[in-house]
Amino acid sequence: MSWGVFTDKEIKPSDKHVYQSLGGVKPLWDTIVSFVEEKYGVDGEFIFYGKNFGWALRYRKSGRVLIALYPGNEEYTVQIILNKTQIEEVLESNITEETRNMIERTTMIREGKWLYLKVDEERDLDEIKTLITARSH
């Protein structure tokens, strides 16, 4: 299983293919893309992360990855890495119990906690924005 549906290294997904895959959640994708691009003044680029992850729209700020978005079928996955300080900030915010539990269960490695969140409903967006804002500090 991969995080995204585009797993062929030789075929970089076009916008058309990404949008077809996203289907009804395309507006949710567009919301996060606009949030990142407008708030941080960065552009995304599609990067292949290997067969277990697939192609992702990656955003970098100040030389480090801010987030990566893996398009799926009627959903997408946000990958975000939070360090100890950023995790503390997020846990003090108004996040859902589900996200809080996921953060607490995720193992801390040298870079921090690698979080993967599925987005398939509008209610997911505020949570994602909170995590992105913490990551940007």
Q: What is this entry, summarized?
A:
With 137 residues, this protein is of the alpha+beta class. It has helices at residues 15-22, 26-40, 84-91, 97-105, 124-135, and strands spanning 44-48, 55-61, 64-71, 76-82, 113-119.
Beta strands, count: 5
Q: Which structural category fits the helices and strands?
A: alpha+beta
Query: Could you estimate the helical fraction of the residues in percent?
Result: 25-40%
Strand content: 15-25%
Radius of gyration: 14 Å
Global outline: globular
Element order: H for helix, E for strand: HHEEEEHHEH
Secondary structure tally, helices: 5
Largest sheet: 5 strands, antiparallel
Protein name: DUF3788 domain-containing protein
Organism: Methanobacterium lacus (strain AL-21)
Pfam families: DUF3788 (PF12663)
InterPro entries: DUF3788 (IPR024265)
Overview of the structural elements:
The chain has one domain (15-135): Alpha-Beta Complex (Aspartate Aminotransferase, domain 1), CATH 3.90.1150. It contains 5 helices and 5 strands, in the order H-H-E-E-E-E-H-H-E-H. The chain has helices spanning 15-22, 26-40, 84-91, 97-105, 124-135, and strands spanning 44-48, 55-61, 64-71, 76-82, 113-119. The chain has a 5-stranded antiparallel β-sheet with strand order 1-2-3-4-5. Strand 2 and strand 3 form a beta hairpin. Helix 2 (26-40) runs parallel beside helix 5 (124-135) and helix 3 packs antiparallel against helix 5. The model has no long low-confidence stretch (mean pLDDT 93).
